[in-house]
Amino acid sequence: MASLSKNWISDLPADRLIAEFSVWSADLANLAAEMSRIDPYVDVLHIDVADGHFAPAMLFFPDLVAAIRKVSSRPIHVHLMVDDRILLSQIEQFAEAGSDLISIQLENESVADAALDLIERKGIAAGMVLKVDTPVARVSKYVERLNFLTLLGTAIGVKGQGLDERAGERLREAKALIAASGATHRIILAADGGIREHTVPLLRQNGAETVVLGSLAFNSPSLEERMAWLRAL
Q1: Phi/psi-derived region of residue 123, left when phi > 0, alpha when psi is between -120 and 50, beta in every other case
Q2: Which of 108, 180, 123 is nearest to 4 (CA)?
Q3: Which of 126, 190, 202, 231, CA to CA, is 20 to 30 A from 11?
Q4: What are 23-39's pLDDT values in tens digits?
Q5: DSSP 8-state secondary structure symbol assigned to residue 145
Q6: What is the DSSP-derived secondary structure letter of residue 156?
């Protein structure tokens, strides 16, 4: 697969919602075919990683990222939901596997600076994700170091939940933090969790530049029509 431009985040669409697809919702038994099917529509592939401790699920591993890297040239965003004790080793492994962007949880604060340092040394983009109950203001000290800032709208690592009623307010607060950070590079504001047909417009109106699409994309009867709707928001 062709390598990405060093400016790939700056090159992401700015005039519409960025299409970020969660591999968790793909047909995992036919992953190569799924990557081919979505390729005309997806801007970023989102891969959740969970260790069964930090988050209740156990999700995805470096070999999967390496396999996807072989069949897709789209940027791969790995979201690590893992315990502090293994965070740095996980960054090493997923960077080696071909990740283009690694997001850690803000709640990994005891090792967050070391983790962001390591991501920078690996030459890949850095992101941070906030649990639904974590005050947005706590991310302010890290914002300038980030390329993606993602706010969860549901409890971590569990499918099928409704969007938290504070999601819009939290996005507006995060957008203001990004604007006040002094960063000279692009920082993408993302929403993840509770992504439904009736919630995406609300998230977009409150500042989300991308939403992490799961079943809303993969289970759509017409992906072409779904993406035309998304791009018109």
Answers
A1: left
A2: 123
A3: 202
A4: 999 999 999 999 999 99
A5: G
A6: T
**Of residues 5 and 125, more confidently modeled:** 125
Letter string b/e over residues 41-77, b meaning 16 or more CB atoms within 10 A of that residue's CB: bbbbbbbbbbbeebbebebbebebbbebbeebebbbb
3-class SS at 48? strand
Of the candidates 115, 111, 86, which has an alpha carbon nearest to the alpha carbon of residue 102? 115
Structure tokens at 149: 């800032």
Higher pLDDT, 161 or 132: 132
d(CA 116, CA 91): 10
Yes or no: say if 155 and 119 are a contact pair by the CB < 8 Å rule.
no
Q: What is the DSSP string of 158-210?
A: -SSPPPPTTHHHHHHHHHHHHHHS--SS--EEEEESS--TTTHHHHHHTT-SE
The C-alpha atoms of residue 184 and residue 178 are separated, in whole angstroms, by 10
Rg (CA), the chain: 16
Length of the chain: 233
